[in-house]
Amino acid sequence: MATQATRYPEPDDLDGWRALAAATDEAVLGMVGGRLPVFEGEVERIDLGGLPVHVITPTGLAADDRRVYLDIHGGGWISGKGEVCRVRGALTSASVGARVWAVDYRMPPDHRYPAALDDCLTTYRALLKERRPEEIVVGGSSAGGNLAAALMLRARDEQLPLPAALVLSTPATDLTEAGDTWQTNLGLDNVLTAGLLPAIQLYADGHDLRDPCLSPLFGDFTKGFPPTVLASGTRDLLLSDTVRMHRALRAAGVEAELHVFEAAGHGMFLGNTPEDDEKAREIRQFVDRQWARAAG
Fold first, then answer.
1. Burial of 145 (0-12, 13-18, 19+ CB in 10 A)
2. How far apart are CA 193 and CA 214, in angstroms?
3. Pairing relationship of beta strands 41-48 and 51-58 according to DSSP bridges
4. How far apart, in whole angstroms, are the C-alpha atoms of residue 134 and residue 206?
5. Mind spelling out the 3-state secondary structure of the chain?
6. How far apart, in whole angstroms, are the C-alpha atoms of residue 170 and residue 179?
7. pLDDT band at 33, cuts 50/70/90?
8. 8 near 20, Cβ under 8 Å?
């Protein structure tokens, strides 16, 4: 993404927010869309009572392979819908070698908290009707990582079984922006070039930012949480959120791995470097191990 600092609209400028989301989606498609030809598979769009979900199946998947990766896209809670959601889901499917459900959740400015989290929960409930929990892995990056972690807390509190594993790639886990790198990496991260507070406030819609469903870092993980792999970079604005989440999980006795990559900003190096490949290998090894353990 461009290194120019993000300029957010005024809170009540709804058209401005929609324009920012559209411009962001266009930029993301320009960066990652060219990688889609390497994906071979089928994409089906299903409808969960008006909620679109892209079901992506890579070519060559065994007919009896029941593994599903529930992919929750990033985009600062305001962008990443439609074609971007589909493309990112396809890239995730190619990376993890499994079927993906990519949820095209509702977003601000038209739909604010808890609409996105509600949609993720609706998708997870639907997936549980088709798969055993041990056949499911949930993952998300950035705002998607925030939603993925919050989904685990929400699902657990609603007495739903938890998946085999959770993947959190540079997740936003503390929306109060209290983490050290929200300040120290500002200007070093060439993807997140400004704080997220305007987007956070738009999304949260006046709710307490310390609510665990908004800031999962403040959740009680001793009540149950799936094995988790977390990834970030030394220049990532959300490095502190990732590291603090890892420490909180470890303190609660949750199995958790942390991978931090040298000189990487938010979203690594946009998928074009050996470091990106190394991160993908680490995540694939982790989820394969968790899937195998659950199946065994």
1. buried
2. 22
3. antiparallel
4. 36
5. CCCCCCCCCCCCCHHHHHHHHHHHHHHHHHHHHHHHHHCCEEEEEEEECCEEEEEEEECCCCCCCCCEEEEECCCCCCCCCCHHHHHHHHHHHHHHCCEEEEECCCCCCCCCCCHHHHHHHHHHHHHHCCCCHHHEEEEEECHHHHHHHHHHHHHHHCCCCCCCEEEEECCCCCCCCCCCHHHHCCCCCCCCCCCCHHHHHHHHCCCCCCCCCCCHHHCCHHHCCCCEEEEEECCCCCHHHHHHHHHHHHHCCCCEEEEEECCCECCECCCCCHHHHHHHHHHHHHHHHHHHHHHC
6. 13
7. low
8. yes
From the CB of residue 5, how many other CB atoms can be counted at a distance below 10 Å? Answer: 12
Give the type of residue at 145.
G
Q: Are 233 and 264 in contact (CB under 8 A)?
A: yes
Tens digit of pLDDT for each residue in 80-102? Answer: 999 999 999 999 999 999 999 99
Residue 269's closest CA among 243, 236, 240? 236
Instruction: Single out the residue of 71, 69, 95, 75 nearest to residue 29, CA to CA.
Output: 75
Q: Which two tokens stand for residue 219?
A: 């959740």
**Tokens representing residue 273 in the block:** 């470097």
Q: What percent of the chain has pLDDT over 90?
A: 88
Q: Is the dihedral of CA 285, 138, 216, 10 positive or negative?
A: positive
> Is 41 within 8 Å of 59 (Cβ atoms)?
yes
- Taking CA 147 as the corner, what is the angle to CA 144 and CA 152, rounded to the nearest 5 degrees? 130
CA distance 238 to 176: 12
| Phi and psi, residue 279, nearest 5° | -60, -45
pLDDT category, 38, cuts 50, 70, 90? Answer: low
